């Protein structure tokens, strides 16, 4: 790879024709340069170097690689156009470059008009991502490209890949014989495991296999060949096994290794293997010791042992025994083809398909016409971030613009910042383009960093002639911009070095020790900066305009989420708040997602105590075990909580899940509780994010049940590739920022910490590029040469990643370094530091012990670089300055609020408010709420059956579900008891109790519940009564007292005046001998014997609970219902009366016990009817 000379770029004179490659080092104003070139193209500036004519914003193609970069570029260009237009109007500009442009413009007024038109058209400007450009071209040229008109663009293809891999696994692996399947299973546990292996090679263009299996080779044939090879080497060993010890002992091989103790054991193990049946590919590790090459390496003096079998062992081990390459070769082809076939069948299109479709269209016979059409639309193309291109992308632009002298192709990027190989970016494609484009330019002035920072980076990367390994990626030193000469960073009145290396002492350290040490060192150093900034001892700025260092000035750059967690833990230990800005995890993987699911399940079914307890036990509610236990023991408080859950259920049904969650947060002070806990902002953000996602999903779902099912499915199968699921930033306060190096590219930070710069990860696979053709090659077997080339590319990318990290800082960068020794070997001798990017630069690519990095760093120190090689310096606990309390007040409502119209209920008229619990759960026995259990062990009688709202609801449910004519099924009753968590000891009691209630006479005419036919029963009759007149408590109370003796003894009614609707549910309406009755079940506990359920005791209970009002309202509802349904309805003839069954008292001891019966007079009901206001329909 030869380095082509480059000249310094002058954006005002750059020829805007042909192909131009512009290499812009970090901070050298690449985006500003693009803006200037854009202005020249709009106005046709540049003299003889100008484009042949002025262009519109729709004719200048600008392509970058992310949506965020597209939005930023569009905004910067729009601002440039606006500023230059103002300068044209004023006749001058404060921007030196704009002033130079003004001097080239012959007619300022005309230029201002052109710029105004361009500014107004910026929404139509051709500024795209690469995928957006391809999609636009395919749609605009559908016939030329063969693009279908109706295709759905999918964001994530993982489901298709998973399905296709599973199909391949079924087709290829299910028919295999057991011995072959056993070998495959040892490599991959299933299709998901195989997809994990394949995934890096399924995006973009597939790599070529270095040693592809023969086209006709199958798994069975490869397996048979492998078994033959094993059998052959076993036979050769068997022929020599008796002589091996003698041959080796008589040689000059190292007898400390091949000792009289070790050698017989090794020979015996290999011989045992050679004599065994061959069932798999497992080899004894001792076999390697008898390879000719190993024996020669172990022979320091004398003659090495030699035998044809030893050479055969070398040859045998050189070619791995595996089916891996056969499976991978077949799977790569098969899975890709299956995915494409499925997409065609479903009319789907992935983002990569946009590129491949346009690429294919351009390479077809009609591609010339398509290329001419695109060039006519976009005569000039500026390709930003070109170092992140791939073969397919470059082939598209090469076909369109290379060797087109009347058009212009400007390729703008920086190969030193090519860090996105994991996304498919290919630096070797850039190098190929670099060799094909003859005109090279560079930007050589850094406008970001201080002179000391620029000089420090220059010195570090100038340690080697080719610091980025490949000579085609040169490091050209840049100079600091003149305005940045005044940048200052002061600590205790002393200027601070721009680059500080923190060297961990010791002869060698492991990776874990290095990370833990540097995380604490980083946190301690940050704490000192913050404390000094708070005391105004650490300041930064320009010239004399300095300000104290703040937390938001400091950024820690890491490579992974695990490294970020180490830093956050170390910062938390010193009470330093931080925020991780690079998380791409799905919000459905958080604990808050699971806890929200439990909460929604409880709100969906508040009558199930188990679900409510599970919800309250979550960290969202922050109720400890002791408090929760106390709460469940207090029936009154528990029932109030259950009713609150029912209120939330009603709110969910009426207004949606998000308003309901907001109400939960307000009522239970969830936000305050969460913010007071560790990582409270993170947790609260996740909870609110989940609420928004659920609200959005609920629009497409049929019911709350479907929404709960949707949430459970998302938790089971989260997808972090979907942008809406990715974790959001929890705070924009002044916090220490933690960012991945990849995400930091293009950004700048005042102070930067690189705690883990000496770390590295070896190449995971033998994927590399041919150094001549630049083609991607995959060596599935992973031989030493291939792994060496892949490792070289890994190191080269790490060097580019280090360059990106070091060039983010404006004032200062701290870097952690250590004599790193990976693996389990003894921590002494030569370290592995030289395998990392930082170690490669410091040690100049040479292995060395712990002393050399210290010496090399000492040689670098001075002139803006400092080295600290001390033990851990303890940090200081950070205390932010408290924000003063500010008295807050809300506006007061002074006008009268007319809110009389509403939907109310019997409970609302009786208890001052409507019971949401009854609205949500009409069979909920709210009147039993608050009845407390005694501490004594309960007997198995109806009097001792558990009290409270939940048992009352259970009893209601039984009588609403059974057939009165037949005894209830014992298995069904047993299931009901278990479902509601009651011991099965109650089964015979419940059976006898129900039988007794069904056969107890209700009056003297032989009326029993068992005598009522199913066709004569209406269960849980719901009604809405219009209240047309304004109803007041005084008017209703006066009417009731005049007509009902029970009402005369009850407390006065007290409710807000109401007009609207009265809603309710009647437990049972039945017909008997031509008359209609209403009946209500009561589970109230009045005492522990039949004496507590006398008519007098029941009457008192009716008075205490205002059941008189209930049956009066229910009678009115049934009266109006019968008026509507019976043609000849007459109250006296058709209405039979009211029964209230106090179930616990119906023990058969007395016909009067447990049964309260009454019948309001006709005059009474007619007066209530008139008080409510006659409806037109009922009149």
What's the CATH architecture name of the largest domain? Alpha-Beta Complex
Task: Look at the structure and give the mean pLDDT.
Answer: 89
Name of the top-level CATH class of the largest domain:
Alpha Beta
Count of runs of 4 or more consecutive helical residues? 45
Give the class from helix and strand content and strand pairing. Answer: alpha/beta
Q: What is the terminal-to-terminal distance?
A: 99 Å
How many discrete domains? 5
Tell me about this structure:
With about 1200 residues, the chain is an alpha/beta fold. The protein has five domains: about 15-150 and about 345-445, Rossmann fold (3-Layer(aba) Sandwich), CATH 3.40.50; about 175-345, Recbcd, chain B, domain 2; about 480-580 and about 735-870, Rossmann fold; about 585-725, PCRA, domain 4; about 900-1170, Lambda Exonuclease, Chain A (Alpha-Beta Complex). The chain is built from 45 helices and 31 strands. It has a seven-stranded parallel β-sheet. A hairpin with a 6-residue loop joins strand 22 (about 765-770) and strand 23 (about 775-780). The radius of gyration is 41 Å and the shape is globular.
């Amino acid at each position: 790879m030869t380095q082509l000379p480059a000249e310094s770029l002058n954006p005002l004179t750059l020829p805007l024709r042909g192909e131009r490659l512009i290499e812009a080092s970090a901070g050298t104003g690449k985006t500003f340069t693009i803006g200037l070139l854009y202005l020249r193209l709009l106005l046709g500036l540049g003299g003889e170097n100008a484009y042949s004519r002025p262009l519109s914003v729709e004719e200048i193609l600008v392509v970058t690689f992310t949506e965020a970069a597209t939005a930023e570029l569009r905004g910067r260009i729009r601002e440039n156009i606006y500023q230059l237009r103002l300068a044209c109007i004023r006749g001058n500009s404060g921007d030196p470059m704009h002033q130079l442009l003004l001097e080239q413009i012959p007619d300022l007024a005309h230029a201002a008009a052109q710029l105004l038109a361009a500014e107004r058209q910026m929404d139509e400007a051709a500024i795209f991502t690469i995928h957006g450009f391809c999609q636009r071209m395919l749609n605009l040229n559908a016939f030329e490209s063969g693009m279908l008109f109706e295709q759905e663009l999918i964001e994530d293809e993982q489901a298709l890949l998973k399905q296709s891999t599973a199909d391949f696994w079924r087709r290829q692996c299910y028919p295999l014989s057991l011995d072959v399947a056993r070998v495959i299973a040892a490599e991959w546990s299933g299709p998901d495991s195989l997809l994990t292996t394949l995934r890096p090679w399924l995006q973009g263009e597939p790599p070529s296999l270095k040693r592809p299996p023969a086209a006709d080779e199958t798994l069975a044939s490869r397996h048979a060949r492998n078994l033959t090879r094993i059998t052959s080497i076993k036979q050769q060993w068997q022929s020599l096994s008796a002589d091996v010890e003698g041959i080796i002992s008589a040689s000059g091989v190292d007898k400390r290794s091949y000792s009289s103790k070790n050698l017989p054991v090794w020979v015996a193990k290999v011989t045992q293997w050679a004599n065994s049946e061959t069932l798999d590919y497992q080899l004894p590790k001792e076999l390697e010791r008898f390879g000719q090459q190993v024996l020669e390496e172990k022979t320091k003096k004398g003659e090495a042992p030699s035998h044809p079998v030893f050479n055969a062992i070398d040859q045998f081990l050189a070619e791995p025994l595996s089916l891996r390459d056969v499976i991978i070769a077949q799977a790569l082809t098969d899975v890709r083809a299956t995915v494409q076939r499925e997409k065609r069948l479903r009319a789907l299109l992935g983002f990569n398909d946009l590129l491949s479709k346009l690429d294919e269209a351009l390479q077809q016979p009609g591609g010339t016409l398509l290329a001419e059409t695109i060039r006519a639309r976009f005569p000039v193309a500026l390709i930003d971030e070109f170092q992140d291109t791939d073969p397919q992308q470059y082939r598209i632009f090469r076909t369109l613009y290379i060797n087109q002298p009347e058009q212009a192709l400007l390729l703008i990027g920086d190969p030193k910042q090519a860090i996105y190989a994991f996304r498919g970016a290919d630096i070797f494609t850039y190098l190929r383009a670099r060799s094909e484009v003859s005109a090279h330019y560079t930007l050589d002035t850094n406008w970001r960093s201080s002179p000391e920072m620029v000089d420090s980076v220059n010195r570090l990367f100038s340690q080697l002639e080719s610091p980025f390994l490949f000579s085609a990626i040169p490091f050209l030193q840049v100079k600091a911009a003149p305005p940045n000469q005044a940048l200052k960073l002061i600590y205790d009145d002393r200027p601070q070095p721009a680059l500080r290396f923190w060297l961990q002492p010791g002869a060698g350290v492991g990776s874990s020790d290095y990370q833990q040490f540097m995380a604490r060192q980083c946190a301690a150093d940050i704490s000192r900066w913050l404390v000094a900034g708070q005391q105004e001892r650490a300041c930064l700025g320009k010239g004399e305009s300095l300000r104290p260092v703040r937390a938001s000035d400091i950024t820690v750059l890491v490579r992974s989420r695990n490294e970020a967690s180490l830093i956050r833990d170390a910062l938390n230990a010193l009470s330093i708040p931080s925020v991780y800005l690079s998380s791409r995890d799905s919000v459905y993987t958080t604990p808050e997602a699971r806890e929200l699911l439990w909460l929604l399940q409880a709100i969906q079914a508040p009558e199930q105590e188990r679900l409510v307890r599970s919800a309250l036990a979550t960290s969202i509610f922050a109720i400890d075990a002791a408090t929760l236990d106390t709460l469940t023991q207090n029936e009154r408080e528990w029932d109030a909580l259950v009713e609150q859950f029912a209120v939330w259920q009603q709110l969910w049904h009426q207004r949606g899940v998000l308003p309901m969650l907001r109400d939960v947060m307000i009522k239970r002070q969830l936000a305050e509780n969460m913010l007071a806990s560790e990582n409270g902002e993170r947790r609260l953000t996740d909870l609110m994010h989940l609420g928004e996602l659920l609200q959005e999903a609920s629009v497409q779902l049929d019911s709350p049940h479907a929404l709960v099912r949707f949430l459970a499915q998302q938790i089971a199968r989260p997808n972090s590739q979907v942008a809406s699921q990715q974790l959001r930033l929890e705070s924009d306060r002044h916090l220490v920022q933690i960012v991945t190096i990849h995400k930091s590219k293009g950004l700048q930070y005042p102070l930067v910490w690189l705690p883990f710069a000496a770390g590295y990860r070896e190449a995971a696979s033998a994927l590399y590029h041919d150094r001549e053709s630049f083609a991607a090659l995959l060596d599935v077997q992973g031989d030493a040469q291939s792994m060496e080339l892949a490792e070289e590319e890994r190191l080269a990318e790490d060097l580019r990643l280090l360059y990106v990290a070091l060039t983010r800082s404006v004032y200062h960068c701290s870097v952690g370094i250590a004599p790193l020794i990976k693996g389990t070997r003894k921590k002494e001798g030569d370290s592995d530091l030289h395998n990392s990017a930082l170690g490669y630069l410091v040690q100049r690519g040479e292995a060395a012990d712990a002393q050399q990095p210290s010496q090399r760093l000492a040689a670098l120190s001075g002139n803006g670089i400092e080295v600290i090689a001390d033990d851990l310096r303890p940090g200081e606990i950070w205390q932010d300055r408290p924000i003063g309390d500010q008295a807050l007040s809300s506006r007061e409502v002074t006008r009268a609020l007319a809110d009389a119209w509403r939907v109310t209920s019997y409970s609302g008229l009786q208890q001052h408010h409507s019971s949401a619990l009854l609205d949500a759960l009409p069979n909920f026995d709210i009147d039993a709420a608050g009845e407390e259990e005694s501490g004594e062990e309960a007997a198995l009688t109806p009097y001792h059956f558990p009290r409270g709202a939940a048992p009352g609801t259970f009893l209601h449910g039984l009588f609403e579900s059974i057939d009165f004519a037949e005894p209830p099924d014992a298995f069904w009753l047993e299931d009901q008891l278990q479902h509601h968590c009651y011991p099965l000891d109650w089964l015979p009691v419940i059976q006898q109790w129900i039988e007794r209630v069904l056969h107890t006479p209700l009056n003297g005419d032989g009326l029993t519940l068992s005598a009522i036919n199913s066709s004569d029963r209406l269960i849980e009759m719901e009604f809405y009564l219009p209240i047309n007149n304004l109803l007041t408590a005084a008017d209703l109370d006066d009417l009731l007292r005049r007509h009902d003796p029970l009402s005369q003894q009850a407390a006065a009614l007290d409710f807000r005046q109401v007009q609207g609707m009265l809603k309710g549910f009647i437990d049972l309406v039945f017909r008997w001998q031509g008359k209609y009755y209403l009946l209500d079940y009561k589970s109230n506990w009045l005492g522990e014997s039949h004496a507590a359920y006398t008519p007098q005791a029941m009457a008192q209970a009716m008075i205490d609970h205002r059941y008189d009002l209930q049956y009066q309202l229910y009678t009115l509802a049934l009266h109006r219902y019968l008026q509507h349904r019976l043609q000849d309805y007459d109250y006296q003839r058709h209405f039979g009366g009211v029964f209230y069954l106090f179930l616990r008292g119906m023990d058969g001891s007395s016909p009067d016990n447990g049964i309260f019966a009454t019948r309001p007079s006709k005059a009474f009901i007619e007066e209530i009817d008139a008080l409510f206001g006659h409806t037109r329909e009922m009149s």
